[in-house]
Amino acid sequence: MTKPVRLLPVLAGALALAVTVFSVALAQEKPSNSDGSVSPEFTGGCTAEGTITGYGTIDPAVSGGVYTVPKSGSAAYTGSVPVEGEDRSTNGRVEIALPLGLPGITLRSWETDDTDASSHSGTVTWDIPDIVPGNIQMKVDGFHQDEGVRCEGRVVVELDGNGLLSTVGILSLLGTVAALGGLIWASIPKREVP
Amino acid sequence: MSNHGHPAIAALCGLMFGVFLAVDLLLLGTMRLDNALVVIMPLISLIVGVSLGWLAPLKMLRRGNGS
């Protein structure tokens, strides 16, 4: 009866780990509204808005998302700061947030020490390879520092396209099953060599 | 019969299981890329894999009360 007794702490430990992990995950997740949208997080008095052709407008002051973004396309953007004056020093960055404080993936950054403008607009285009799966929700953080004013905002975006039904998704599902099979096999005691 | 399974293989399979499971959940849209679980899940699976490979509990279940 010794071996079944050894199994109990393993199961209890696994259960405790599962509860801990999912508690941490739930605590990390930003609460969404009942309609699935995310409340806006935008501070500093700036404006920032982008209109993606065929997909609508992203405005962090109105909604935090979730915004669907195409893998390839273009967007017209405009932004302004509540600051005036000549030869001002400014800097800013937009990045995809990663977990546990890991450095984010910078999408765009800027820095100058002689700007006179209080608004900016333009067009940006992008083309992400088809192999990249869609449906992954990402938090995009951005800030703009202009003299004594700092504007910050964040939105949640997801790439348009298949997630689990993409090539990467199917390979990942197969990998999950294969790894689970290997784990089960490796959990069976070895036969002793006579 | 040995009391142990295959800890090294179980560790590798556990790690890969956690990585693939995290990718599955990301692609399902059930958690975001900045969720701590993306990093924690593979590490927990690695630990669980080593434990399962070391303790080899499945054979014990199959053999019931046998020694």
Low-confidence spans of chain B: pLDDT under 50, at least 5 residues? none
Mean pLDDT of chain A comes to 83
Share of residues in helices of chain A: 10-25%
Q: Which spans of chain A have pLDDT < 50 for at least 5 consecutive residues?
A: none
- Shape type of chain B: elongated
Helix and strand content put the structural class of chain B at: mainly alpha
Number of domains of chain B: 1
Strand element count of chain B: 0
Helix-strand category of chain A: alpha+beta
CATH topology name of the largest domain in chain A: Coagulation Factor XIII, Chain A, domain 1
Number of strands of chain A: 10
Beta-strand fraction estimate of chain A: 35-45%
Biggest sheet of chain B: strands, sense, closure? none
Strand content of chain B: under 5%
Question: Would you mind describing this structure in some detail?
Answer:
The complex is a heterodimer of chains A (194) and B (67). Chain A is of the alpha+beta class. Chain A has two domains: 1-30; 40-184, Coagulation Factor XIII, Chain A, domain 1 (Distorted Sandwich), CATH 2.70.50. Chain A has two helices and ten strands. In chain A, the strands form two sheets. In chain A, strands 1, 4, 6, 7, 9 and 10 form a six-stranded mixed sheet that branches. A four-stranded antiparallel sheet of chain A has the order 3-2-5-8, with no helix packed on it. In chain A, strand 6 (88-96) and strand 7 form a beta hairpin. Chain B is mainly α. Chain B has one domain. Helices cover 72% and strands 0% of the residues of chain B. In chain B, helix 1 (7-28) packs antiparallel against helix 2 (37-55). Chain B is elongated, with a radius of gyration of 15 Å. Chains A and B meet through helix 1, strand 9 and helix 2 of A and helix 1, helix 2 and helix 3 of B.
